[in-house]
Design brief:
33% helix
Amino acid sequence: YTTEIFNNECMPGALSVQCFAHLKEDVGEAIPYLNASLGGHSFTLHPPSVTFKVQGKLITVHSRKIAINALKDEHEATKIVEWLVREINSVWENRHEVEPSFESVPRPKVIEILKLLPKSNCRECGEATCMVFASLMADGVKGVEDCPALDEGNRTKLSEYMSQFRFA
């Protein structure tokens, strides 16, 4: 693969960079297996692609390209691309053991998370409001442990609720 690192054209002053990794081989047939293995946020059959939401980043694997946003630098881009290439190769080599998935995995609902949060907007988690925290938690950026104001009963309920969703 070759990489292309660039700033977002819509936000030229942004502190993060974007990356395209142009693949030398077509990995389209491996995408449903990768989706099953890593639990894609969204999946498209034609043309094949799967998108993962990981720690505030969107990572999309297309047949001949990987796109990643919100990166700190080229080093982080290389690290993620190398990990994905290993995952793609591994899932393809072991495809006889994996049931391909042609659907997106279910996602946590922000409102269900918010129902269990203290709704005090205390900012102990570092976010301005419990709603912002709930949105970040639904995206996999924040976890149950990141809300110090959460009482034990709701911490358990929220952990159980979130356990049904996969985050890569």
